[in-house]
Amino acid sequence: MLAMIGEQFYYGDEICGAVVNVRATYEKISLWTKNAAFEDVQLSIGREWKKILDYNETIGYIFHDDAKKLGRGATNRYTVSLIGFNERSAFLSFFGA
C-alpha cells in the first residue's frame, strides 16, 4: 500500500484505490484502476506490483462490469503469469472500470 501512496508505479496515476480482505483461509488484495481497456498499462502495474510484493504466482485482472454482473463467476481478462513458486496463501486481483 505504501508503494501506491508513495507513487512507486510508473502508471500510478491510473491507480484509484485498493482494498484488502483478510479471511480465515486467505488474504486478498485488490487494486482499482481507472481504465480497464488499457491492457499494456494494467499489465505494467501488475508486473510492478508483483515485484514490489515479491509475489511469484499468477495474478488476474477482472473488469469491474464483469464483477458486477457475474459476481464470483467473473473471470480474468488479463493475467500476469507465474515467475517462480511461492507458497503464500494470497490472491491478488485488479478491478478496472
From TrEMBL:
Q: Name one GO molecular function term.
A: translation initiation factor activity
Q: Which GO terms describe its cellular component?
A: eukaryotic translation initiation factor 4F complex; nucleus
The record's listing under Gene3D superfamilies reads: RNA Cap, Translation Initiation Factor Eif4e
Q: What compartments host this protein? A: Nucleus
Q: Which InterPro entries match?
A: TIF_eIF4e-like, TIF_eIF_4E
The residue range of the signal peptide is none
* One Pfam family recorded for the sequence: IF4E
Q: Which UniProt keywords apply?
A: Cytoplasm, Initiation factor, Nucleus, Protein biosynthesis, RNA-binding, Translation regulation
What GO biological process term is on the record, naming one? Answer: response to virus
Family (UniProt): Belongs to the eukaryotic initiation factor 4E family.
According to the record's subunit comment, the protein's assembly and interactions are: EIF4F is a multi-subunit complex, the composition of which varies with external and internal environmental conditions. It is composed of at least EIF4A, EIF4E and EIF4G. EIF4E is also known to interact with other partners. In higher plants two isoforms of EIF4F have been identified, named isoform EIF4F and isoform EIF(iso)4F. Isoform EIF4F has subunits p220 and p26, whereas isoform EIF(iso)4F has subunits p82 and p28.
What is the designated name of this protein? eIF-4F 25 kDa subunit
What is the organism field in this record?
Salvia splendens
